[in-house]
Design the sequence.
């Protein structure tokens, strides 16, 4: 019984992670199948990239904490930022 409840609770997280996975494989300039042909050294000025950061933080902390942190990360990624290493915690 607890197994079923746990699966139902984790369903929104898995759904968001699936959409991030689709974005990374199809559209991301750092992770998609076409990106290495155009951007040999990667595109994002941050490490890990914004989509990878989102994937890691949502997997680690859940969607209630992960989505606001992901949005804050995307807002910080702009032409005036220096970039760098930003490990999700």
Sequence:
């Amino acid at each position: 019984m607890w197994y079923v409840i746990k699966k139902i609770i984790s369903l929104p997280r898995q759904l968001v992670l699936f959409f991030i996975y689709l974005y990374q494989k199809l559209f991301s300039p750092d992770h998609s199948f076409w990106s290495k042909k155009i951007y040999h050294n990667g595109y994002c000025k941050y490490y890990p990239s914004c989509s990878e950061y989102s994937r890691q933080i949502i997997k680690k902390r859940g969607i209630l904490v992960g989505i606001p942190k992901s949005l804050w990360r995307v807002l910080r990624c702009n032409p005036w930022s220096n970039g760098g290493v930003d490990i999700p915690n």
Summary: The longest strand covers residues 46-47.
